[in-house]
Amino acid sequence: MSRIPLPYNAKVMDLFRNPKNLGKMEDATIVAVAGNPACGDMITFYLKINEQTLVIEKAQFESYGCAANIATSSIVTEMIKGLTLEATWTDITWQKVTEEIGGLPSVKFHCGVLAVGALKRAIRKYFNDRGSESAWMPKENTFEEKQALEEEELANTLSKRLKPEEEKSP
Amino acid sequence: MVENVKELLKLHEEITHQVYLDNENSSIVPQEVVDTMLPYFNKIAYGNPTLTHKPGWEAFEVIMNSFQKISKYMGAKILEEITFTPGESEANNLAIMGSCFAQKEKGKKIVISEIEPINVLHAAEMMKKFGFTVTKIPVDSDGFLNMEKLNEAIDKETIFVSVAAVNNELGTIQNIKEAVQIVKDKNSQALFHTDATDAYGRIPFNVQNLNVDLATVSSYKIQGPRGIGALYLREGVDLDRIIEGQIGTQKLWPGIENTPLIIGFTKASELAFENFEVNVTKIRCLRDNLVDGIFSALPDLCFNGPKGEKRSPDNANVSFLRAEGEALTIELSLKGVYLSSGSACSRRLLQPSHVLVAIGRRFEEAHGSVLMKTTRYHTEEDIAYVLEVLPDAVNRIRRIVGSTGVE
């Protein structure tokens, strides 16, 4: 285990202290989760979607994680409000989220990736739940969705294999 | 990035009370220790203790005096058994590598506990590159060493065993005397080292009573300056140097002795040992008030490590479930309470402390862990302040978590 200096910028700190759009949304159209407690990183997005225009009218989040995780989740809810699902899918990348928040220590890039992973998961779920498809959504998981899956699997594997075999006493 | 820090620090401007509980990772050096050190930078004994002039002889005199005192506090027979090093990482590395290199003809097996501090763990792992093997002995759910497994692990090939007298994260006081007996009964040639950085000055500790061959102590862990520690090596035991240079008053660590730091470490030791019982009682009371206060204020907690007499008096390790440790440390920093989390961020995942994993804590339990250590410099008001702000901090972080992760 090594420790890395984490000088968060003012924007990250502000959203950590005063997160926007925080909390469960009772009338959400779609709810999606990425990460898990074992990762130490977990986000739930609640999206209220206009079923006619496919515009995200409202977005809220809850998050278990570090300051960067909380801040990136919060800023994503601000960035996507009023966007169509298509615009959200194509425009919101983890790089853009990281940029919007004024940068993150590189060791925290995965927080932005997880946030976008959770978001894309939500949008995919919206169409899957309705048995519909959209021309702009690839069938294959995107980079962020894959990363979220990998992170979840990795944490599950590691936390199950609490003590690596080769390190056990004879 | 440095610009960010200025902004970060600005957020702390309204703090009215500060309590530093992160004594695991650094320490405040009290003014009385600093005052004792100051003359040695430029007024007296600023010379090299091996040289033939007044400032050199002055340095020689005070350093010899320090050797004498530290050897007494550790319970060494003679002062030559003590080597000052630039810290406990260096002392532990010297102990492990120096022993292995010197004893390599006798065997290639290193035995350590699963919960050794990182500097023991990594130094032992490093020796694999030189053909040594590392066997880790498991511990129970409170961090106590499995003595049966230790007994099974020791064989003719075993040359070096290391078990910390007090675990730095859990405060678990090991039965080192029994462990030494088990090791020596199976293989009298095997060397026994103990990292005593969390025992020294907080529990009765004596290298001769415990019958260990090597022991590490550290200055900052008893509120001395950083950058200085010591290794005890029993007279007659062979150890190789691991770095080379100009040899001065001590043959195992080259370089010019750092007189002010040695003086600071010695002063901190004097202060810790002068009123040992009084100090320890105070540290324990403060710690107990802290822990009791936290547990009566908040639900969903988990106490890590043993309770009662088998725990070092300064150590409090609590997991706040449904609150991530780093978020909690930042939230509390903004209120002037400084502590550290057991998990550290890596590129992909939060890495839980290997110690908490070894005692069977689930990852999510480890991620919410916070380590606090009280010192005799803390006051009841300090603890009261922590208990005033900590529940709100935990509750705010838990509100952000909300229903996330609730099955």
Summarize this, please?
The complex is a heterodimer of chains A (170) and B (407). Chain A has 170 residues and is α+β, with helices and mostly antiparallel strands.
Model description:
The complex is a heterodimer of chains A (170) and B (407). With 170 residues, chain A is of the alpha+beta class. Chain A has helices spanning 10-17, 67-80, 85-91, 94-100, 109-129, 143-160, and strands at 30-36, 41-50, 55-64. Chain A has a single domain, classed as Sufe protein. Chain: A (Alpha-Beta Complex). Chain A is built from six helices and three strands. A three-stranded antiparallel sheet of chain A has the order 1-2-3. Chain A starts with 9 loop residues before the first helix and ends in a 10-residue tail after the last helix. Residues 163-170 of chain A have low confidence and may be disordered. Chain B has two domains: 2-21 and 276-400, Aspartate Aminotransferase, domain 1 (Alpha-Beta Complex), CATH 3.90.1150; 32-273, Aspartate Aminotransferase, domain 2, CATH 3.40.640.10. The model of chain B has no long low-confidence stretch (mean pLDDT 96). Chains A and B meet through helix 1, strand 2, strand 3, helix 2 and helix 6 of A and helix 1, strand 4, helix 7, helix 12 and strand 13 of B.
